[in-house]
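Recall the central idea of this unit: under ordinary conditions, the amino acid sequence of a chain determines the structure it adopts. In this exercise we apply that idea directly, starting from the sequence alone.
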Amino acid sequence: MTTTSTTLPAPPEHRTATIVMACLGVFVAYLPITSVAVSLPAIGNALGASTAQLSWVQDAFVLPMAAFILTAGVFGDVHGRRKVYLTGLVLSTLGAVVALSAQSIEFVWVGQALAGTGAAALLPTTLALISHAVPDFRERGKFIGIWASSLMLALTVGPLIAGPVAENMGWRFIYVLPIPFAVAAFAIALTALPESRAPHTRRLDWPGQVTAAVAVTALVFGVIEAGVNGPGDPRVITALIIAVLSGAAFVAVERRSDSPMLDLALFRSRAFTVTTLIAMISFLSLIGFIFVLSMYFGMVQQLGTIEAGWRLALMNGASMIVGALAGKMMHQVQARFLIGGGLAAVAAAQFALLTIDAGTSFAAIGWRLVVLGLGMGFVMAPMTATAVSAVPYRLAGMAAAGNNAFRQVGGALGPAVLGALLTAGAVDSLPGQLADAGVDGEMRERVVDAVDGQGLGAVTGLDLGADTPTVMNAVGDAFLDGMQLCLIFSGILTAAAAVLCLVMLKPGADASH
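Accordingly, the structure predicted from this sequence is:
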């Protein structure tokens, strides 16, 4: 594809429309994450899904985002970002329709996968549209802040709308939520969104796409199965070996490609490398934490989707409010202090959550979630803007796609890693909790066997008779033990990312424009 007029920065009359469509696109892409997360207990009860199967509900969405986001970026550069943007909206709508009509957990996975593929098309495209419309990297940070706030707005309103819908109409109808937004965005984009392409020749990198998709999928599958069957299970070992070999093949392919999907030269930029690593860590922590927290609200506190939705909205609402502010503050405060300080706040909130239990009040958990949300708000926009601004303008689209890809790899690993830790910690703790509660040996064995086979959610399907309150309290205590393991892991990982940021992300480090 040769350079055409469409590669020039968007004229002023199209700039506003382009930025608005970019923000609406990322809103559609991220709306299913928390709207589905808050409904996981209801989905599990309705379809008899295990903890591992519920992990796949989240990962069926995030995995295609991670696997196809780089290819979608290349498609946009070569064939036109408007076309890819419209395709993403269509896939998002189709996925919602499939999940809406699902009668089994497997069909929910299919719908989630289609919607996740649509999100993979939207994410790099929306950032590339902003880079095209605002070529000045100093001005671009402000609009990336607005883009990040749109992302957090989706995470905020998702559970608020999904809660009443799920409780009054049933869990399937949460999948209606993105459809009107996607249809409206499609109709507006047809007339108001100008076409644009990359100002240099690129072509599709199928060997890179295949090896990347296999590596990410095998890695997440191995982690999830390790939590269910143990790390020594042959399927786990096979999956992890495939992930390592495919990852090595991806690096080899990209090094030799004339038109790589991810130019490894990007990693010569310290700023890009550090922010990309932080993106992966922060989303592993965030998406994994949302998964665990939604299970805590449903299984331990026995909250409905509306009450759980308000609690998640506190966290994501705080992020949304701070996100736009953080984009503007990049001109006055070094990015490493914004990102590092935000990560430190997230880690502090995660450690503070170690003290919660089944009876923790809305206010007591609320302030911790607000602190966590404020921290994430200071991370999102500066992290993305720094990654994009650290490379030459011609590579801005690839840098955005690469940063998003690693972010979604972290997002896919989040429910897998924390779900595995949650299950392992809870299963190890459950026999002792049941014994301490005075549950007799036969009943204790029934409960433990059910949890070993299908996860903690299996207990709700057992006929426990008079022992129901006692057993459920013991299961809740075991869940809390597993949740503490998740919080310690996330807190340490996030704190390490904060230190990495403060030490390695030097002002003006190797940025080129």
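The mean pLDDT is 83.
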